Amino acid sequence: MIAYIIRRMFYAIPILLGVNILTFVLFFVVNSPDDMARMHLGMKRVTPEAIENWKSERGYDKPLLFNASSQGVGQLTDTIFFNKSLKLFQFDFGSSDSGRDIGYDISQRMWPSLAIAIPVLVIGLMVNITYALLIAFFRATYIDIWSVVLCVVMMSISGLFYIIGGQYLVSKLLHLVPISGYDTGLSAIKFLILPVVIGVVGGIGAGTRWYRTLFLEEINRDYVRTARAKGLSEGVVLFRHVLKNAMIPILTGVVVVLPLLFMGSLITESFFGIPGLGSYTIDAISQQDFAIVRAMVFLGSVLYILGLLLTDISYTLVDPRVRLS
Amino acid sequence: MMGEWVILWTDALIFILVFFSIAFGYYAAGKEHLRGPWRLVVRSRVGVSTLVILSFYVIVGLLDSIHFHPLLPSKDQAGQQTQSAEVISLFDHLVTPLRVRQEKTYSAPLATHLYAKENIELASGEVIRDYPRLTYGGAHLQHPDQEWSRDIWRLTGIGVLKGLLVSVVVTNILIALLAGRWKTSFGAVAKVLIKEQTTVPWRVLLATLSSVILVLFWCVELSSHYHILGTDKVGEDVFYQALKSIRTGLLIGTLTTLVMLPAAILLGIMAGYFRGWVDDVIQYTYTTLNSIPGVLLIAAAILMLQIYMSNHADEFNSLVERADLRLLFLCIILGVTSWTGLCRLLRGEAMKLREADYVQAAVAFGVGHFTIIVRHILPNVLHIVLITVVLDFSGLVLAEAVLSYVNIGVDPTMNSWGNMINSARLEMAREPVVWWSLLASMLFMFILVLSANLFSDVVRDAFDPRLRSSR
Q1: pLDDT band, very low/low/confident/very high, at B203 (cuts 50, 70, 90)
Q2: B374 to chain A nearest CA, in Å?
Q3: Which of B300, B394, B407 sits opposite A23 (nearest CB)?
Q4: Fewer CB near the terminus (10 Å): N or C of chain B?
């Protein structure tokens, strides 16, 4: 098991290196640091000195790949590629273009993101599975048909509408919870209720429909017929046999997104003014802070690969037929 | 009225796409395994009714994709008609009243007065603070307070009447055509249609078509005197904006897949067919691209594009061209983030197919790899490609709105539902609430996405042999 995990982690290295090179090309080769400096300082009346100043403050004044003016190893290490891209591997994110320490910001902003993402995931999962089981119980009746219609309709509504509509209805008209904001400790709950509820409601359509397909696939299997034939009630069949076997695809689908929960939700967090990693990314995009966007791209890839690894491991844990090889 | 034609990048691509669809249609018509599923699609009630609605969107989108410089009414010294520098589309030309009738600022749907109070100077020289009348909305009314509701009903009545007339004509033409084709009498066809004993659900098709025509005529009638969905901050008609956004939504949904298809098909089949190091390289490529969160990759790419555009501002002739290139670039980058799923599917399918007997036989006969792929593998994965294209569409339309909200979507000057929602965010905080922009964009987007979702379900059921056999 451990050997397998270690081997899988070695597979991740070339992929992360690829991500690294890709972001390097995107951020430093397509546009030179000079272009970035000009963008930040304003287009008009910008002196070459100001550009040099901006670059040296942020460490962008070095050569891209090869530094001929340095000695020995310094020729390779005293470059933008080494300092800005390869250092990400040590999770050394450096400082943002406005001078803040990105690593510190991430460690601070991770918690509000998780405070929304985890409840949304857990409650959403429970609601969707319950609803899908209910539909599976009443399969091929009007309840089934109209539930599927409802799911498709809910899927077709933009997530933005749920947020804007929910904020307007609950916060502005009914004054039940504050529109946006965040607080530390337990007092954060009143800020979290609405985003969590909206996150759950927005996910019902696609989630329930997906789980319904999974359940219906299982329900036609032979072992289910056997279970019914030996006289088990429909409820027992659903819970003990169908749900248990359908848990494998459900579980692996959940595990793959687990690490990405850290990244938070861009839209929800920015609408509700929650200081998580999602709104951090959005702010960085709108302020054109390339250092932060670069760090988030790398972090996102690491978490995604971690998710894939966890999925593979969880497969072997829940399904004895899958062997590690 | 039309001057020089302008072909924008996306226009060219959209017409290439139309050309390919028609060519594919001809190709599919000759192949039973492709024609059969389509027959199932048009035999499904949901299939035909969503098809009618989708084709309405497509028509608007296509009309909006033919651009030209309009001619100015004035003539220059040589007696030649001069043309304006702005670029408009055929659709703009058709709905010229909607486009040019600009109010001062916000006004509610069907309103006769502006949204905000202003100082109005009366004829007597006295200045009062009241809601001023709109320049165009309900301008034909003398006393809006008393006449307004009667006028709305009158226009509704006229619109519905005209719509009914047209739908009756359309229905009769269709029945006559069917009667000619089935070689029976008009009455017999009408009877069969009403009882819905036809294989193709013509009754559902006619009902949907008639409803669309009714709504269309009603909107046309009302919008000739009012702003049916109100006006926005600078007084532009919201109904017009929502209609213009159709093209953006359709482009994002279709061009993205068009852009990614060649790469996904080629690489996916190659990986599955050749295996070995080719497979390794291609798998590595898509795992790497896939591991970057899509939004962040798009954000990074659009940020870079913004820098490029602001540093090379002189390379773009007009705002329209600039916005158009940005849209194209957005489609490409969305394509880069979304081709991996299809590629993986095709890889698996090609891997299965290369072991099939007929492929093995072809190999034994010494047929070249290229010929095998084109003749034996490609036709057998086309249904997967088609299902993916249709399934991806609605997701992409929704994604556009989210991306535009984060400012990494289409150009802010371009009409799009995302940009409308983006502006609606501030409008919802106003007092009284400006809700019509949000409602209009949501409504148009919802109808498109819902139809696309339902249609794609029908297409998937029809094309997926695994599902078909289980029913």
Answers
A1: confident
A2: 31
A3: B300
A4: C
